């Protein structure tokens, strides 16, 4: 048997690509950690609306104001809760002004009354400029 004079052929070494990918991912993570701490993020807190006493002529009409004690005034005139449907006869839109700290169930019970179910209810909020 003759021995071959040619060198033995070996398979070329293939680099492990996953090692490169891991290095790139780690570098990206470090980059985003470093730059993310430098950027100032604004406060994303929730700011609730506030209500205050206003002259009734500055509010849209008809406006139903619900006081803290539960009394109702419609366009500045006191109205009993039983007479509300009759007072709103013929109206299609009702603007509703209620304190922001009022329980949500009270608001839902109010708009669920038979005389108010067909009305387009719009909550009135008052923006106070100068406050942040």
Structure description:
- There is one protein chain.
- The chain is an alpha/beta fold.
- The chain has a domain at 56-123: Nucleotidyltransferase, domain 5.
- It is built from 3 helices and 5 strands.
- It has helices at 17-36, 84-87, 104-111, and strands spanning 63-66, 72-74, 77-79, 93-98, 120-123.
- It has a 5-stranded mixed sheet with strand order 3-2-1-4-5, with no helix packed on it.
- The longest helix is centred in the N-terminal third of the chain and has 20 residues, at 17-36.
- The mean pLDDT is 77.
Write the layout of secondary structure elements.
Elements: H1 17-36, E1 63-66, E2 72-74, E3 77-79, H2 84-87, E4 93-98, H3 104-111, E5 120-123
> Strand order across the biggest sheet?
3-2-1-4-5
Q: Can you tell me the CATH topology of the domain at 56-123?
A: Nucleotidyltransferase, domain 5
Distance between the termini: 95 Å
Unreliable spans: none
Mean pLDDT comes to 77
Keyword list:
single chain, 132 residues, alpha/beta, Nucleotidyltransferase, domain 5, 5-stranded mixed β-sheet, 3 helices, 15% strand, rod-shaped
Task: Describe what is shown at a glance.
The chain is α/β, with parallel strands linked by helices and 132 residues long.
């Amino acid at each position: 048997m003759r021995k071959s004079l040619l060198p033995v052929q070996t398979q070329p070494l293939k680099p492990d690509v996953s090692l490169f990918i891991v290095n790139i991912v780690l570098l990206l993570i470090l980059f985003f950690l470093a730059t993310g701490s430098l950027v100032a993020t604004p406060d994303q807190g929730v700011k609730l609306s506030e209500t205050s006493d206003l002259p009734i002529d500055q509010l849209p009409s008809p406006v139903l104001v619900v006081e803290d004690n539960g009394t109702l005034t419609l366009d500045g005139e006191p109205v009993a809760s039983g007479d509300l449907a009759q007072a709103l006869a013929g109206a299609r839109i009702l603007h509703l002004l209620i304190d922001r700290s009022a329980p949500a169930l009270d608001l839902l019970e109010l708009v669920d009354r038979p005389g108010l179910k067909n009305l387009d209810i719009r909550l009135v909020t008052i923006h106070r400029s100068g406050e942040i």
